[in-house]
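Per reviewer request, we include the raw input and output of the structure prediction for the construct analysed in the revised manuscript.
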Amino acid sequence: MALALLCAGSGWNTTASAQDADAQDNKLVFAVVVNQIFNEGKLALVGDFMAKDVTINGVPLGRDGYKALVKDLRTTEPDLKLTVDDVVTQGDRVIGHVTQTGGGASERRIILLRIDDGLVQEHWSWPVQPGLSRPFDGLEGARLPTIPAAPEIPSVIPSGALANLPALEPSLSDLGVGAARQPAAPAS
């Protein structure tokens, strides 16, 4: 119901064939996330369009954390605006090329949403690499990349620091194997 009402209010066409219905619904969810939740700050929609355990860039935030992130972003940059330049869908994923403006700056970004039953399960976002004019040219009908793995967290321990530690493997005697363990006496 929420999709139909927002669809009617946003100008999105709902007459897609049954084969394209999921892709159109997912594009509509993408449009709501960008235009209504981020651009207009309508945080009440988070409960309707985000899974209760939604993640952003692999970090589990949940709905309350998602609301807090959007609220903080809009507080820091009250003139925040995302403009959708291109959108491609495949299965449960929608990937969009957007231009983010606010705070006197402009940045091109990629947003990937994984959507299941109309709810955003995962939200990924990263800046576009310089030199790409239109990252989706020629991708219509192509397979989208897999959702990227969470970045590896670098170790804060210097590489040579562990060399001076004693062996962490238990010895055979620690495990009760060998001479430290006596076999049971045979039964008479």
